[in-house]
Queue: 2 jobs
Job 1
Amino acid sequence: MKIISLHKKEEQLIALVKKQDRASQKKMFDQFAPKMLGVCRQYVKNIHDAEDVMLCGFMKVFQNIHQFEHKGSFEGWIRKIMVFESISFLRSRKEMLFTEEISYKETLAEDHVSFYEIEALQHMIDTLPAGCKTVFILYVIEGYKHQEIADMLMISEGTSKSQLANARKLLQNQLKKKEFYNGAF
Amino acid sequence: MERFEKDLKEKFLKREIAPSEETRSRFEMLLDNTDKKHRFANSKKIAMAAASVFLLGGLLMYWFRTVVKEQMTEPYKTEQQFVKHSDTKVEEKKDLVAEKSQESSHKSNKEPFIKTTPAPVSEVTEKDSTEQKEIPQLAQSVQEITTQEPEFHSQQGEVISQRIKVSPQKLLNVIEYEKQIEYLAANSKSMQQIFRELRVKMVNINIEKKNSDAKK
């Protein structure tokens, strides 16, 4: 019953946002902004940039909300917009390079953060090159297939696979150094 | 590595980062701007609609003034109207022709020497006695006319002399009138003579017929 009422509330909210109701827009922002900022932060290193990306993403949500056909979840739809917005941001910054060379920055401050904490994991992923990182997040966290990733990033399926392999190698090296997931490898 | 990826996925999907106050205020500003843009777009649309309506109204007025008024003033512009009008005109012409033919037939009926059939001899003989009485009366009337004519002319001459004093144009008119009167008088004389001669001839013919019949 609770799920049905929540779904109805969400539909009402969407209907009001479609009518460009400002209070509803704010309500929607308050409801989804924390999660969407987390999504943007996965791709964008700087939190301020991630906030900018999120704001742009929300503006796009409000502009194109009439295109939402109530087929999937609304959160998933917004999430997709945020992912695309983040990728376009990285592309505009020319940070997204798909090189075969395996290199990473050792900026992880292991003394300050625990590996159990999410920010530490984020830091670890941030050390990866932008191309590898994006493919890794899209494949591992968002659950996209290689073909879909290739279409999104306008690369070949092979490049997507190789980028994922590179990302995994780099992360394995990092984790070996930290000796945290020793049992897992 | 799989374990790590699973942990990462779980944590990242549940991850929430509260946006700063600055981002909230920026979001509100962005909403304000979009509202303004939306309003401006709406006002633009309304203005465009109003302008188009005004233009259409103007065009309609112009059309009414030019085309409709022309049609009102010139009712035969459209083809159908022209055809109808021509039909009515033809009918009117037909009516006129019919009237004229009727008039002409009436006139022709009035003329005795053309249409009337010659009277039978018996009727003519009956009329002879009355005609013989009428002849001296006719002769008398002719004589009276001939006697009265100079007096009439003299009177006309006086009138003419009086009119001459008035204006030369009138004099000319009077001369023309006089000529016409003279012509008519001459014609009337001749008609009277013709009538009398015809009468006389008819009477002679009748008498001859009677004599021949009597001889037989």
Job 2
Amino acid sequence: MVTARLLLLIIGLVLIPGAVFCQDMKVNASIDDSKVLAGRKAKGTITISHDENDKVDINSFRMGNVPLKVDLVQETRVRPGNSLLISIYSFVMDPGPKGLQLLPEIRVKVGGKEALSAPSTYEVTEMGGEETAKGKAFLGLEAVIDGPSVLYPTQRVRFLYRYTFNDNIELTREVLPMLEAPGFRKIGEKDIRSFDKGPISIQEITQEVEAIAPGVYSYGPSIIEGYVYRQDTVGGREYFKPKLLGEAPAISVTVLPFPAEGKPASFNGAVGKFTAFSMKLLSPASVRVGDQLSLQIDITGSGHLENVPLPSLCCQPGYSGIFSVSDLPPAGVVKGSTLSFVAQLRPLTDAVKAIPSLEFSWFDPDAKTYKRLQSEPIPIQVKAAASEALAPPPSPPPAAPQREQPSFSSKTQAIEIEGVMQLSMSDLYDLPLGNWWALLWIPFGTAAFLLQVGWKKLLSEEKQEEKAIKSEEIYSQWRESQLDSAEFYRLIQQMFLMRLAERGVIGEEKLGKTSFQSLPKDGIAGEVRNFLNRVDEMRYSGRGGSLGQEILDEAEQLFYRI
Amino acid sequence: MKNIFGNAYGLTAILSLAVFIGGIGYFYLARYNEEAKLKGAIDLYKKGEIAVSVGEREKAFNQSLSILTALESVYRPEFGTGKLYYDIGNTYFQLGAYPWSIFYYYQADRLMPRNDTVHHNLSIALDKLHLPPLPEEDPVRAALFFHSRLSLPERLQLSAIFGIFLLFFSSLFLWTQAKVLKTVIAFCVLCAVILLGSLFYSRYLSPVEGVMVKSSSLYRDAGEQYAKVTEKLLSGGMKIQVISTSSDGLWIKVLTPDGLLGYVPQTSLRILYP
């Protein structure tokens, strides 16, 4: 008896800890809602408990034999120091037709070993057709501009959507173009506020925007759609027809450009209402050329002060060329109703006596006019730069009247430069032939000259051809003339001489003035001379009658050889 | 066939002439009347000159300036008479924007190099900013008077005129073979070649220059994160040589009159043209 009890104790001491430390894998899979809407994807969760050394192969999930795509939701330790992990995965699937459906076993490889989940059931339902218990459900949508619908650039306004409904509604579609507000700059995130007014529930979604560029901007129409639903005790939802629709018509906002009339030169985009503008020197007033001056510029007013730009120091009278201003504009700091900038300036010359008055101008959208404020000038003393101070002082520059920086109402000083030149329309255009296109004379002129050269060459060739025709004519006449006649002998000489002149063998000036006896003795002219000599011999020796076809052929060959 | 070929030459010459004349006619007929704007700008300037208070004066000059700069942006007469640039320079001067006035005076000087009024006003503007005065003309510049005393558009005009004369006299010589024309042709060729040489230099060899319209530091490279070449600022109104621009076009590499090489922001410099 004692031995049996001792044996049981030993077995228990071995097995129980072993059971505790030998932790099996477990896989549990289920659909999140016990009731799923037909036609909509069903969401499910897979929970795997396993040892941390056994890794889950995320690509090995299978539902039946079909691969299943899952996403890791969370991995958590059962308790600190314990090697047991709980890994949670989510998946979606087609639920199937209406009725009770089976979620088959899901296989997964964990640490190289395959694990299975147990099958489970879920129900697929269709939309319900009942009306709600509270009465007929409705869904309404309003699109509202909370502020003026006509703005100027940098003005702000709020775009608001208001949902009104009297039941639990799940939205399936929301088209709310005003919240994206293309053409405007969004300020901050959307603000959502929900509240009840009696039996009606209201949700307001607001987006603050800022106008950027002039134009007419239209948004809409805006649409929301959804279904009424009921939630059961386990959190599942049952949906009811019909689909509810809330629609708001298109809404327009106009951003006007700043009017050109009356726009001050100092205006650089400030909009609102301002009451004060001042400057204050933060650094010492006595500096050397090139030293830095810190200037605080304060603008007091109401509205969105953070949008107000600093007046352009570079471009106001008395600053350009006298002070250098940092290329990086200073950032403004808003304290209460005052916007402050701290600008850095460096005087470039020791001739400057004060930081000039600065003008701040803005556009008042209510009065639709521009307004201005001036700051007072700040006296400063600027000495020459340190290296220049060591050298003997140079002779003073030629006297030119020093321009003080006067206020707008003070009297003007004398004009220092010569006056303007009268302008006419011709001063707005380039001089005739006064730009690079004028060089086209080179290619066009060359082409025109070459054309003429070609033309001349063509004309001379035509003339030569006419001359050639002339010798041909004489040849034709000679062929028709009577053999051994005076005409015969005259024409034979003439045709050869003409031919030689046309071919340039003899000068044209020799035609009619010379006989064949004066022809050169060599070359083709020599052959002609010899031939005509033989013809003459035969003529004057009384053997002209014996001139036959041979002579005619020889003459013809010689003629065409020239 | 030969007749048609012969006639084609004459036809081509006549057609070319007709197109040329027609083109010139269209160019002048297509201009629209802006006389009222020009007159208005000059009247406003003169109104500013006689204004009794600073406020009225600055208002008149600003209005004149806006008309003149609008015309400049539309017409851009970079090869024109230069009078528009001179008037803009005067207006900037009256408004105290001396660097801009210096830029426009230099621009006008390029187009009116013989005009003493431009030199005079430019000298005053340079003096306002304590910048070095204009250099005196040296003997080399005096010898190359056709380059220094004629603006680029004038040289282009003259080269075109000599080119047309050259074509005319060459053609005449071609048809008449008159020996006296050889001398005339040689003279036209010489003048055209000299002017073309001057134009070639202006186009390809002369340095590009600009004027600082805003004071700026000179940086070692294209960005404000780089160290400065010198602590001394490049003051507005200073004329400097432009070497190149950065790939994004926002920085310009320049050579100062002191021989310093560095980069300045594109917004602080305006380049002189042509």
